[in-house]
Structure formats: C-alpha cells, structure tokens
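User: I'm writing a tutorial on reading structure tokens. Could you give me a worked example: one chain, its sequence, then its tokens, then a sentence or two explaining what the tokens reveal?
Assistant: Sure. Here is the example chain.
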Amino acid sequence: MRKDFLWGGATAASQCEGGWQSGGRGMAVVDVIPQGENRLPVMKGVMDYRNLPAGSYYPGRDAIDMYHRYREDIALFAEMGFRCYRFSFSWSRIFPTGEETEPDEEGLRFYEDLIEELLKYGIEPVVTICHFDIPLALVEKYGSWRSRETIGCFLRYCEVIFRRFKDKVRYWITFNEINMIMHLPFMGAGILIGQEENSLQVRYQAAHHELVASAMATRLAHEINPGFQVGCMLAAGSVYPYSCRPEDVWESLKQDRENYFFIDVQARGEYPAYAKKFLEREGLVLETGVEDEKILRENTVDFISLSYYNSRCVRTDGGGEMAGGNVFESAKNPYLTYSQWGWPIDPLGLRITLNDLYDRYQKPLFIVENGLGAVDQVDGDGNINDDYRIEYLEAHIKAMMDAVEEDGVDLLGYTPWGCIDLVSATTGEMSKRYGFIYVDKDDKGQGTLGRTRKKSFEWYKKVIAGNGAVLK
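And here are its predicted structure tokens:
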C-alpha cells in the first residue's frame, strides 16, 4: 500500500451529529424520518412526513450527540491512528432554510472547530457536502431537487464552505450515494412523489439537477483552490448473474448500468448512450439548461468514492429466495454467508467491484464506506468482543489490498462505515452497530451516550500502524 494511504473511518452528520435545535441549525430531512413501520414509506417519498402520527420517534434528531462530544470522539479516532476522517456538514446548520444570503456564523464555527481538532492530531478531513441532507425549508418551498432553484442554493452553500476551508480541507465529496435517489428519494434527496405523478420522471429530473449541481460545484471548487480534490460517490457492489443463462447475464449488465449511470456522467462528462435510450423508451423528457451539457462535459470529478457492503445477484426465472443488502434486494447467492440483517457477505466482491470501477473510469478510487452491522453484547466486565466484525473487515481489507497490489487499482484510502456506533440510515436503529467504539444508547433513545472501545478498536489500530502489513 502507498505510504500516504488514507486509513480512517466514516460517519454522517444526519446519523451521528444530533444537536438539531442547537447552534441555530434549521430543520433538515433527517429530522422528519421516523423509526418504525413508517420509516421506509417516508424514505421512499410515498408517505408524507407531515401526516405521521403524534409521538413518532425521530432518532436522527439527537443521534449520538457528536455535536457536543466531537472532541472526545476525535481523540478516540486519533488513538486508533486515523490518517483521515470522512464526515459530512449539515447544510441547514450553515444555511438554516437554504435561502439565506449570509451563512450562520455559529454553524461555520462549529465545523471550523471540528476541523481544527482533526488537524491537531494530523487527521485529514474528508468532507461530504451533502450526505442524505437538505434543509427542510427547501423541500417545502421548492420540492427539493425537483426544482432548479435548489442548484443555486446548493452552490451558495458550496462557495461559503470552499472559501472558509480553502486551506484546511483538500478532499470533498459532492453527494453521498447519489444513485440512492432512485431507491429512497426522500431520504436521499428530499423528494416526495405524489400518487398521480410519474415517479421515474420526477426522480430522473431531480437527479439531473443534482448532476449539474455537482459539476458546477466541482468547477467552483477548482476555481477557489486548484489543489482541491473533488469526488463523486455511489452505493457500489457488482451485480452477478445467478446462472450462465444469457437472460441472467443480460439482466446483471442492465442493473450494473443502472448503478453506474450517475458516475458515468460525473466521471465522463455526458449521459451515456444506454441512458439516453432508456429515457427515450420510458418517454421521459428532462428539462435542461442551455449550458448543462457543456457544464457536465467540462467539470468531471477527480476521484470516484464508493460504499461497498455486499455484491448483488440477479435471476430471471422467477425462482429462488431473495436477500437484502443496502436497500438493494436481490436473488440469494447460495455461495455466500449472510449478516444478521440478511445482507450478503462477499469480500472477493469488493475486489471485483474495485476492478470494475477502475477499468471503467481510470480515475483514483476511494472506499469511503464498508462495514458490518451487527448486535454487540457488553459482557460482565464491560468488554465488547466483536470478533465477527474483525473477521468481516479483515477479509475485505485483504481483498482491497489484492486489488491494489495484484491488480494495479489506484486507491486513495479506506474509511470503514460507522467507525463509532450511530443511527442506522436504513432502519433507524442503534442496535445495528458498525463501530469500533460502542455508544451506550438503545433503539428507544435511552442510554448514557458513554463511549467504550470494542475489541476491534485495538485490532484496527494495529492494521493502520502497519499500513495493512499485519494482515499479510
């Protein structure tokens, strides 16, 4: 591995920060996504959050209160030896409604203090600008990204943070898992879809606005500081055909393309031919600006970042069981084991995915999410022996290193997801834990919020210290 390889961890403001009524922060999408049976319909944008029953519990509002405890948490990251930390800004902490002409100084100071704390320990900040996050006021006034007005609000936010942190942040990611707008449009982009609307039309129009906004933000970033490295990000995982039936192989190719579409635009600068044909076939006509094609073409990203939790599998004969996995349901692969939440565990799939992406784009890659959600037990001595997590991460890191050292993939870094326990994006649970650090909070929001090192904490510390050599 390269000597400057960026080992670290990853979180998101919407899942760990909390402090939803502190520091002048405005309401955000995460604040109206409940836990429980209504969570998925709200995230899909088919249930209006304004019609939820009284007493609904919104776990993202307080999360693990990193807003008030970030110094303690960063000290623990430093103890593990983190070389970088991937986190996100809360847009509504800086622009409470998204439309202010001037940012909220208290919000900016919070992130400035957080970044200074990272730099004090020599930890490189990797900032996601928009991680399942948008001011709720923009949802209610403009319909979020379905409106072109949101592009201007986003760019005003970007200009403020690019100028404020011009000399302190090098790595920026425009949108987290941008392809999630197709699957969870409200969680991913604040999109509500009416019963009488053409859902595909709404989602692809909103996606177009995000793609243009990403390209314009990339241009702005490079104008403000040519040394900025700006990346895109997708929820990745190669799709396998269940069999060698040509129909299965063809379906796997189509689903891979559906996944790659956004990154094709962000990395190559234009809508690919298959996407144009798809839009034509579906009768979808996107409203575009006269300069959009030029903007996309001239402002491609510097690197590709990705989340990888599992591969996917498709079969077209209508048979067999189905399996879960980061929102994407797929055919159950009989050659894999499965997590407590039914997600496939496929370390070699990470190597395959990295090779697929690098062959396709020939741009540096960055794994910014990878991990195992599991129930952790605290024993009588207060220890958390999470050997299952160590086993998962060890196998995936080995596969990642093979992709770099055997296959020649250019990889910038690796930041396992939820390096500290946080609220699960998909389920809203705390019991679905990913971290090296245990947070004392349960699914009902009860607990001391105390932080405890798990067994995996010391293991990952050794991995980083040896730049991965301990695993060889």
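What the tokens reveal: The chain has one domain: 6-471. The CA atoms of residues 319 and 463 lie 42 Å apart.
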